[in-house]
Amino acid sequence: MSTHITLLSWNFENNGGGDSVKRLQAHERLVSLSPHLVFRQEMWRADADGNAILYELEGVLGMRGWLGPQSCTAVFADPRFFHPVREWPKPAPMWVLPPTTLSMRYLPAGREATPLALASYHLNYASSTNRATEAEWLSTWADKKWTTPEGETVRMPCLVAGDNNSYPVPGTEGDPALPVLDEINDRPHRLHRSFIGPDGTRVMDTRPDEALRTAGLEDVARHWSAKHGDKTAVSRTVNACETHGPDARIDRLYATTDLLGAVTGVDVIEVPEEVSDHHIVRVTLDGDLLSDVLNQQPSALDSLVTP
Q: Which of 38, 64, 221, 283 has the greatest number of beta carbons closer than 10 A?
């Protein structure tokens, strides 16, 4: 029987705000979902006192963790299944909330299998201009290269997950509707979540989603929902509120198209508002099919390995 690999992405609000009990309970909630990879956002102060909170969370989760610059993001991996082969400490020349970026080997696929390119990210909250640029740089993770034992240069399959602070392009049945700009009561938030469109009017920001999908990184929830008619895959990840508008699917996981056939499910686990302002996105993969993808030997690429 194939192993089901569980991926979780969660922006746990303010990393519990310094409340160690709340932080422990939140991560025990993640443990109950039996994850193999966890993409975390808002890891504030996890680097304090020699990464004390990071190591605390490693102990709770029973996973190894990597903390991104400025404690904005992290990746946790089950060491029985995933092993790092490279870290990317400077993923781009600019980033307001830097991502955690690694290349990891899926151990059941074998030592000669191509690794995965992974990133946990948090796009900028206040500036649609910054988000567009950050999404463009994030797209480079769909173009990371690996040299096979035979000396061929191949492109690594890629998984990136995080808080987009923007919306998916409309068109998926069941996706929360885009907010109406004038119905957002918080005036600064109108600015934060919109940009000036080609006709000079302000429109809601869907540019990061469009950019990533143009680059070949597919919204896994959108793919699953369209293929299987499963509207729960595109459930809200943040709740409606008085100031910021209606339910929205801000948190998303993207994958290169070679991985989509290994997906076996997508859903959203809601958490109480007193725990976090974001819900948990869960994606499951068939381990055998994942191994098959990583052991394919595509044609060698002419380009050099990305530095």
A: 221
**Alpha-carbon distances of 240 from 36, 55, 202, 243, rounded to whole Å:** 30, 34, 21, 9
| Average pLDDT, integer, range 21-48 | 97
C-alpha to C-alpha distance for 299 and 156, rounded to whole angstroms: 12
User: Domain spanning 4-179+207-295: which superfamily?
Assistant: Endonuclease/exonuclease/phosphatase (3.60.10.10)
Q: Name the residue with tokens 């540019």.
A: 207
The CA-CA-CA angle for residues 301, 118, 175, to 5°, reads: 105
Which residue in 122, 9, 157 sits closest to 75, CA to CA?
Answer: 9
Residue 127 backbone phi and psi in degrees, to 5: -125, 115
What is the DSSP code string of 276-297? -SS-EEEEEEEHHHHHHHHH--
Domain boundary assignment for the chain? 4-179+207-295
Question: Is the distance from CB of 73 to CB of 100 less than 8 angstroms?
Answer: yes
Task: For residue 49, count CB atoms less than 10 angstroms from its CB and return exposed for 0-12, middle for 13-18, buried for 19 or more.
Answer: exposed
Give the model confidence (pLDDT) of 74-124 as tens digits.
999 999 999 999 998 777 778 899 999 999 999 999 999 999 999 999 999
Asked if residue 244 has pLDDT above 80, the reply is yes
